[in-house]
Amino acid sequence: MERAQFFSAQAGRTIDAPRRLQTRFAIGDVVRHRVFDFRGVIFDIDPVFANSEEWYAAIPEDIRPDRDQPFYHLLAESDDNTYVAYVSQQNLIGDSRGGPVEHPDVHVYFQQFENGRYRMRRSLTH
Question: Which distant-in-sequence residues (6+ apart) come within 8 Å of 72 by Cβ?
Answer without folding.
Answer: 25, 31, 42, 44, 45, 46, 86, 87, 88, 89, 92
